[in-house]
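Escalation from tier 1.

The customer reports that the assembly of two entities below gives different structure tokens on two consecutive runs. Tier 1 could not reproduce it. I'm attaching the input and our single run for tier 2 to review.
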Amino acid sequence: DGGITQSPKYLFRKEGQNVTLSCEQNLNHDAMYWYRQDPGQGLRLIYYSQIVNDFQKGDIAEGYSVSREKKESFPLTVTSAQKNPTAFYLCASSIFGTRGDEKLFFGSGTQLSVL
Amino acid sequence: AQKVTQAQTEISVVEKEDVTLDCVYETRDTTYYLFWYKQPPSGELVFLIRRNSFDEQNEISGRYSWNFQKSTSSFNFTITASQVVDSAVYFCALSGGAQKLVFGQGTRLTINP
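Tier 1 run:
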């Protein structure tokens, strides 16, 4: 089945530690996205990528980093500079990422908590 | 700037009741797109519907219907004869041209048996 796989489902971070969230898609989509979901705040865009080896900052990129070395993969690193990392992180993809009418396909998310 | 407001944070109804989720948006674009997504307890968002700014026809899909009114900048979602399986968080979202999606805060809908 085609889809987006996020792992792990739950992740815990210690103070000062970097952690990496995995996102893999087999939909052959060009564009991939990372969103952060906090209770009562909807989804906010962290980073997105429309092509391999290229990515752009979203609205809340500070404290996060990404890479796009393969079309299928778009890992997100939450660095120690992100002071409030506890949230639900969602990865998504779309066919091109260049048109406003594209629908997004989402993974099942990773819940990150701070120890 | 684009903005989506879902004023209803939580709604709770009894099964078989009809329920309407409100969505109000702001944009200066003449061409834009509106979406509804459903987030069940499993976590992933599921696409429900897309509307472009030039198509104000209401749409019905089974028990779901959507009412798009440009005059009031609203794109409301109604579930008729609600069922327990409709319990989820519902998000309204907006994009303009090549701009990325802006999501509303979401409405948590609980259908009680």
